[in-house]
Amino acid sequence: MRRTAKPKLSDEGEKEFERFGNYLREEQDLAADTVRNYLSDVRQFAAFCEVSWSESEERGESFSPANVTTPTITLYRSHLKNALELKPASINRHLISIKRYFGWAVDEGLISRDPAKAVKLVPRIVPPPRHLTDKEESALVAAVERYGTLRDRTLIVVALHTGLRAEELCGLGPSHVKMAKRSGHLKVWGKRGKYREVPLNATAREALSEWMSELPEETSCLFPSRKGEKNGNGERKLRPISDRALGYVVEKYAGLAKVEDVSPQDLRHRFGYVMAERVPLHRLAQIMGHDSLDTTMVYVKGTPGDLQQAVEEVAWA
């Protein structure tokens, strides 16, 4: 049974289905699109049940939650995977909708036992983060050097050479930068207020030194926004660049560089990938502010391009 917009149900099945729809609309006060998705998923399942039951019985059975068993739902999960060839995320969305339906049916006293409770979602393999190539990084840096302001150039260089999260980068102040002739670090308060010191290499130190020489002495933010409110003298009050504005900055120069779909997080990932090839993971985790090495392990996973290159090496050319 291929998925259709609105599969036909028996009259009895429609009545059962309508009760759930009323519950979502009237008692849960969900958004119209959310209700539509839930109802679509449960309707697909109900139609599958009626078709399956009619094929295995001399007479067809109308859909009712009382007629559904756990094996019925696991069979439907297999149908979504093998017959419809849906991706794990789509299969899990269907299953979550079904679980919500049967949870409601138990609460309403339509059934005494929830057949969906034991059904497991489909495991998902999380793909590795976006990996900027050497060519893409060079193009991005060239674009901001050619078209960008000193602030924007510094933002992108520091992001690429420290791996800071967007909110960490935007929250920096001049007092957080500590530099000597051959060393330096940033004082960073990361997630959940955790403090760490992120080392600065020569490239980052040079970019920061040039930028900070242009900053007014009274500035409390390292990367001020150009859109601050004006004071009584007509001067703009400096405030830190926002995460969203940082995203616009990266997107702007990525567009000029003709590099698609780049965000501040991708610059952090670029740093992580490059560093993972050079330093032990426990040191990288410390720099990136990861609580667990499991998080840092993402940077040693091969990208689709890495895996393609690996299998090509054993091709019979």
Structure notes:
Helices cover 53% and strands 4% of the residues. The chain folds into 2 domains: 11-107, Orthogonal Bundle (DNA polymerase, domain 1); 134-302, hpI Integrase, Chain A, CATH 1.10.443.10. With 317 residues, the chain is mainly alpha-helical. The radius of gyration is 28 Å and the shape is elongated. The chain contains 13 helices and 3 strands; from the N terminus they run αααααααβββαααααα.
- The radius of gyration over CA amounts to 28 Å
How many E-type strands? Answer: 3
**At the third CATH level, what is the topology name of the largest domain?**
hpI Integrase, Chain A
End-to-end C-alpha gap: 43 Å
| Overall average residue pLDDT | 88
Largest sheet: 3 strands, antiparallel
CATH class of the largest domain: Mainly Alpha
The proportion of residues forming helix, as a percent range, comes to: 40-55%
The CATH level-2 architecture of the largest domain is identified as Orthogonal Bundle
Please give the count of helices. Answer: 13
What is the 3D shape?
A: elongated
H/E element string?
A: HHHHHHHEEEHHHHHH
Strand order of the largest sheet: 1-2-3
Low-confidence runs = none
Percent of sequence in beta strands: under 5%
Number of domains: 2
Structural class: mainly alpha
The CATH superfamily of the largest domain is identified as Intergrase catalytic core
Quick rundown:
The chain is mostly helical and 317 residues long. Helix content is 53%, strand content 4%. The chain folds into two domains: 97 residues, DNA polymerase, domain 1, CATH 1.10.150; 169 residues, Intergrase catalytic core (hpI Integrase, Chain A).
